[in-house]
Amino acid sequence: MPAAAQEPDFPIDYFVSRRGAAGDVAVEVAEVLESAGYKVCVQDFDIPLGANFVAAMHDALKSARHFVGLLTEDYDSSVYTREEWTSFFALSRTSGNKRRLAVLRIEEVEPPGLFASIVYGDLVGVTNRQKRREIILATAEGRSVGRRRGNHIFHGVPPRNPDFTGRISLLAALHEKLDSVEKPAAITQATQAAIYGLGGVGKTSLAIEYTHLHIDDYAGIWWAAAENRTILIANLAELAGVLDSRLANEPNAEKAARAALATLANHERPWLLVYDNVADPHEIRDLRPSKGAKLLITTRHPDWGGYATELEIDVLEPSEATEFLLRRTDRTDSKGAADLAATLGYLPLALDHAGAYVVSAAINFDEYTRRYQELITKAPKGSLSTAATFDLAIKRAKELDENSEKLLGVFCVLAPERIPLDLIGTSVISEHERDEAMGALFTMSLIRKDNLSGGGMAVSVHRLVRTAMRARLAAAKKLAYTLTTATAQLISIFPREELMDPKLWPLCDRLLPHALELSRDLDNRSKYTVTLLQAAGTFLQERGAYIQGEQACRDGIALAEKLFGRKHVAYAVALHTFARTFHGHGRILEGEAACREAIKIFGNRDDESLAIVLDTLGGLLNECARNTEAELYHRRAISILRKKFGPQNRRIAGPLMNASSTLLDLGRFSEAEQLLREGITIASTTFGRESYFLVNANHNLATLLLTAGRAREAETIARDSIAETEKLYGRKHLSFALSLVTLAMTLRNTDRAPDAEPLLREAIEIIINTVGSEHVDLGFARASLSKLLATDGRQAEALEEVSQSLDIHNKSLCDGVLRNRRYAIELSDALDLVGRKADGDEIRLRYGLAPKPAAIDPP
């Protein structure tokens, strides 16, 4: 017997600490240590039901000589495990190293905080039972066998299945298809393979096994959920930020996704991209790498034509299915396993659930087969027989923990991949109850662990499990309630204001798939769904997904009308969200109509919602050069907000800045500056000095001073604005380009044209890459460059730039008027300088600008 076990002062040799989701590994560790002669305490079978949990854990910690922590993504975030290991850590430091804290890493996570100083045992990716035993013992006894991690990126790949069986020929065939080019460094076209087959046959499991087997064959591996185009784009946009930090805050997610694929094309060693659960080729038609990466697709769609080489996957071979059951259950009854495998049709997912049930309920294969057949007999005619395995697993999980079915119900109305645990708030279930329920669900293989980029634990649920669980909810008349609960919880954490702030985008990216899933659910038709559609639509707009954003807003309006009618305030709020969508598109007249209808619904109610709509309408009218009307709406919005919230409330800062822009276009510089500085003062004290709002406001101040002829003052603020904008958005963002234009204009107006030109050219390149070649901001930048070139005597170049600017102008008219007054001034001046004064005067006439008294001769 080990020496530690002979000493009487510590009746327990090892205390095993874990989060609820790691219960199966805790049991494995305890069994390994006990088989070596140690006495072990683990809550899964040493703390009886009904006992005082906290007191029992306290006694166990005092009685244990050594401590084994099972490190998962969420281990350090739990108040319970944090108290356990920090208490023991303090004790071990005062015991002369007689008490040891050992760490076993069981998920792909970097040890945090004090754990970083402890050499850990690593079970990640280790499937061989004997090898796992050796690592557990070595770690517990202080002989760490932790492995050094490589530097390459291995993102989003689910944990390896320790019971993965067979499929050797399929794995070889898949590698042959993906490795069809002998020299990866010479890849000129991406190799693409699609694994297809029915639900539950193990497509994703095969892809997971392949990526773990060939981790060293690629420069990086990026796993992307791809059940719809929006989610895939978000995943690839995240990859863009990893490949190039300058793309991390790119607002247009689709442009970022394309940039990621373009960046991969320049890599010498190939990457592997995995698109999991693609519906059909059309969804990824233009999101496939052209070179520099190999693409692995999992799908139910059988025909990929010229898009990819298909590899069909079917159920397991009988011998493989039998072996899987024996490994999954650690049993030796080959005949019972073979009979059960045949009963279940050799479907891997059904076999996994059956094996989990057999182990958990401590029954043999024949008994499971009997229970399964009994359930099938009672099932409605035409139902899928494999659903019975899921039903048995769900019932068994509930026997293990009464909250598990409730928790699984919430999981199954969200998107199936990467469900953040933040979404399961205390209004649904307490944190401790959630962890215990997850332990039961993991034990029955009803959920699998996933990691979120940037940290945090998530779970995923197979689609067939979701179908079975939703059927149970519907039969119990609990589906509508579960959908409403999940939607309300998501709304409580999904940002709905200030979505221009890049700091909020990572959180929104995590929540967006679940927001879209809930909002598309035809069974989920409530007031919460309307709010969720508005939040999702607004965020999609800010991220540049205009088509998806507009559709979400349209759906929100349709649902609001159905639930409340066209005269309800909720319908007016939905209209306003839609109006903002049109503003982003440049469809000013449509946005104006939506705002006016919303205002009519609000009537004389002077509340915040009305003020927001009035301010939006003012902005739309200002874009059309209807500045006098715009001023009235801005001032009324400010008046309502001041009366309701006081003069220094943060809600007033935005309308003050918008009103300032309108007064600037009216040439009332002093009033415009007064309002803008008031807004900046409020923003600096309520938003913080590094907020996105203050960055934008300072840029507006530089623009105002420049327009008012105070170029030297404007330069100082413009330089600060560039630094702040780059820090917040990066150098590829439209806001950064506009900051460059403003600084260039201050330099041009202070006779430093050579310094201004490269700034304008860089800005033009960024604008084209972010919003395209017909945007008014590009026209403004080209007009500014034309003025600079003409003043420098480069007449031919100036004429080319102003011609392109005028072309953009003519395509950007709103009811006959350009959407930007400053652009009109800049363009008309540039036309004068290249000898086209008649065209310049025509633009001045449209805006009511004073005509130039005489022609300006070209230099």
- CATH-derived topology of the largest domain: Rossmann fold
Tell me the structural class: alpha/beta
Query: What share of the residues does DSSP label as strand, in percent?
Result: 5-15%
Order of the strands making up the biggest sheet: 6-8-9-10-7-11
Helical content class = 55-70%
Instruction: Provide the CATH architecture of the largest domain.
Output: 3-Layer(aba) Sandwich
What's the CATH class label of the largest domain?
Alpha Beta
Structure, described:
With 859 residues, this protein is α/β, with parallel strands linked by helices. It folds into seven domains: 3-140, Rossmann fold (3-Layer(aba) Sandwich); 153-312, P-loop containing nucleotide triphosphate hydrolases (Rossmann fold); 318-378; 400-476, Winged helix-like DNA-binding domain superfamily/Winged helix DNA-binding domain (Arc Repressor Mutant, subunit A), CATH 1.10.10; 481-601, Serine Threonine Protein Phosphatase 5, Tetratricopeptide repeat (Alpha Horseshoe); 606-619 and 626-689, Serine Threonine Protein Phosphatase 5, Tetratricopeptide repeat (Alpha Horseshoe), CATH 1.25.40; 703-847, Tetratricopeptide repeat domain (Serine Threonine Protein Phosphatase 5, Tetratricopeptide repeat). Helix content is 58%, strand content 8%. The protein is built from 36 helices and 16 strands. A six-stranded parallel sheet has the order 6-8-9-10-7-11, sandwiched between helices. It has a five-stranded parallel sheet with strand order 2-1-3-4-5, with helices on both faces. β3 (64-71), α5 (79-93) and β4 (101-105) form a beta-alpha-beta unit. The N and C termini lie far apart (99 Å). 51% of the residues are buried. Mean pLDDT is 82; it is low at 1-8, 46-51, 146-151, 181-189, 379-384 and 855-859.
